[in-house]
Amino acid sequence: MNDVVYFNGPVQNGDFTFAGRPGKAAGIRLAEALNALLGLAPVPHLWNTVTLAGDVRHRRAADRGTVNRRQREEQALAAKYAPGPAPAGGLLTDADHHVASLALDMTRALLADGTLTVRDLPVRLCARCGHMAGAGTAGDCRSCGHGGARVARRSLLVFDRTAHGPVLERDDIHAAGARNPMHLFSIAHHAPQLLVLSRTRDHGVDLAPLGLDGMVLDPRAGLHVAVLAAAGEQGAVRPAMTVTENAAANVAAYGAPFRQHGAVRLRYALHGKIPYETAASDQLYEVHRAQAVRELFTGWYLPLCAARERAGVSAARIPALLKFLRRAHLARPATPPGDLLTDLRHRAAAGDMRWVTDARALACALSDRENTSGPMGPTRGAL
Question: What's the confidence (pLDDT) of residue 176?
Fold first, then answer.
């Protein structure tokens, strides 16, 4: 088995394109860049398709009689990559058969050992469509827009974290040499003590085999299972899921029971947001005579910088980072020194991203990238 392999935190399959919102691909590009540096084969791009917004879009579509919910997600995903080819490692969603099978197996095991339970609890249901509102949700139904609701009792899959310790700890973060994200731990630990892990959705991991008819596994739990499923196919013991701090804070508590399966343990590889509106400026590349490294900068180097600057890459830093990359690109050796490349790979596997602002290490990484993937590297045509 491989040791560390990077996977993107499943991207929500919303109404956007990568061209219009390149920041949506930051985690994918970061995982690709690090895996390539580690000499690994391409892994699948992971997608979150279990969304209420997706249900609503499908119900409102004129062709819903001829296109089912799963097919609509597949069409939307294909459009994300058009007109280029699909990613070399393929696609995997949080509702694919392999993911659903693993999710049910894990849920059954967690029910058997008492980590999860099924409880009969009062819930607020839409009086028209039966959609179950989340805790504290008020107003019109988010599924059908109806204004009426009723209170009923329903069997739910729940995680009572009272007896299971912190939902997020230092060991859950994949990052050697980085500061502990104490604010992230605080946010995660303020999640409700009783977490409901079953939801009313038209699409997802069907919980009917567990006696929860009409419900699916909460997508915040399911996206963790998607990473574990992808890791299992790749033989990865330590999958690292690229994710922003804000996203990790929103999903960590719900994913806590689903971060380990057998010997495979999932950790979060945190990264910040990238100011692509600044990096898209034509003048930026003209002023710094850096047109030749534009795609390299936006598609490869900035995602790596975002893993170092987890609070987000400052827009003010963009010109300096571009100049630094350009100099390192010009200074890259024809063949990367073996000892430096070995050290660089150890650091990349450990999540130590300080090397991205080390001129010699960056030049080595650029040389290795070019030697193994060609001048445009592994992301060419993928996004």
Answer: 66
Residue whose C-alpha is closest to residue 61's, from 71, 49, 48, 50: 71
Q: How far are the Cα atoms of 132, 162, 198 from residue 125, in angstroms, in the given order?
A: 5, 27, 14
Beta bridge partners of 243: 270
β-pair partners for 263: none
DSSP-derived pairing of the beta strands 11-12 and 264-265: unpaired
How far, rounded to the nearest angstrom, does the alpha carbon of residue 246 sit from its chain's CA centroid? 12
Are the CB atoms for 46 and 226 separated by under 8 Å?
A: yes
DSSP code at position 174 = -
Residue 62 has pLDDT above 70, yes or no: yes
Strand partners, 6: 240
Structure tokens at 350: 């450990």
Residue 376 is predicted with a pLDDT of 40
Cα 345 from chain centroid (whole Å): 22
Amino acid at 276: Y
User: Is a pLDDT exceeding 60 seen at residue 321?
Assistant: yes
Q: What pTM value is reported for the model? A: 0.94
Written as six digits, the tokens of 131 are 């959609």
Over range 6-33, report the average pLDDT: 95
Nearest one of 62, 61, 72, 96 to 13, comparing CA atoms: 72
Residue 227 sits at φ, ψ, to 5 deg, of -65, -45
- Closest CA relative to residue 251, chosen from 207, 157, 187: 187
Provide the terminal-to-terminal Cα distance of the chain, rounded to the nearest Å. 29
Q: Sign of the C-alpha dihedral, residues 288, 290, 296, 299?
A: positive
